[in-house]
Amino acid sequence: MNTHDLQSTAQAMVAKGKGILAADESFGTIEKRFKSINIPSTEPNRRAYRDLLFTTPGIGEYISGVIMFDETIRQKSESGTPFPEVLKRQGILPGIKVDNGAKDLAGFPGEKITEGLDGLRERLAEYRKLGATFTKWRAVITVGKDIPTRFCIDANAHALARYAALSQAAGLVPIVEPEVLMDGDHTIGRCEQVTETTLTSVFFHLEAHRVVLEGMVLKPNMVISGSKCPTQAGVEEVAKATVRCLKRTVPSAVPGIVFLSGGQTPQVATDHLNAMNALGNLPWELSFSYGRALQDEALKAWKGEKANVTAGQKAFAHRSKCVSAARYGKYSAKMEMAAA
What we know:
The protein is α/β, with parallel strands linked by helices. The protein has one domain: Alpha-Beta Barrel (TIM Barrel). Helices cover about 45% and strands about 15% of the residues. Strand 4 (about 100-105) and strand 5 (about 110-115) form a beta hairpin.
């Protein structure tokens, strides 16, 4: 493990004005996305869609890295160039999702544990040979009646730390993603409480596993109201609650925090990030690692048709530009009107 290289890569991932595209949808998730535009989830369609995103002209100005799925990192562009090389030519770091998904936590109804530690050391070595420079592992924490339990939080935190240690040992920067799900009717206050407990546990276990904090990136949820909560917190309330929670739990040694969008619309996710950065006086870079919030508009413009590739790329570039502006707290509704 070269600590200097890990730190340099982590800093590049959260470079000023840039963020990360999460294009690591599993087969089941990408099928749902494609159903929304009425096209089948075939290998050629998945490859063509990722090709559209990765070859968007000038996208390296806004995107620092891309998280890929196992299939994607092995695919090639229409030009015949492997996707990791396509990204590098744009000045973008190739990354890879390495967990095997969240499964039911035995004995704990309604709770999940992420699997994939078995054989991870060998898979990391292969992914590095394929061109990956960073990795991602997602844990999910469900909020509901009597959950999450402390056992579920700690079990997922331990797995995240073990994964992070193995990634760094392989020379890869780990993105540590503990997601408190927005599904449910819980208040923003409840979300903040659970998020604070989760992040406290995560950093306890990271330290115990001797993970180099300067060589990792955190990918948490924002502190927001549950999607079914009758009272939805406003943009400023979300920003203040999220930053307050992070300042209580995340060491300043961590170079950056890249938020997941978690089902928020593109505009709302951009608004929230913008409001946080507008607060100023932050010890880490606050950036993005959005999936749907970066892709939805591009997907709808593309519609699975080759003739619409340019339209899809234009939509992707515009959203990326908007979220890039939010990195400086300079996003405005006028930018949306310009696109319209």
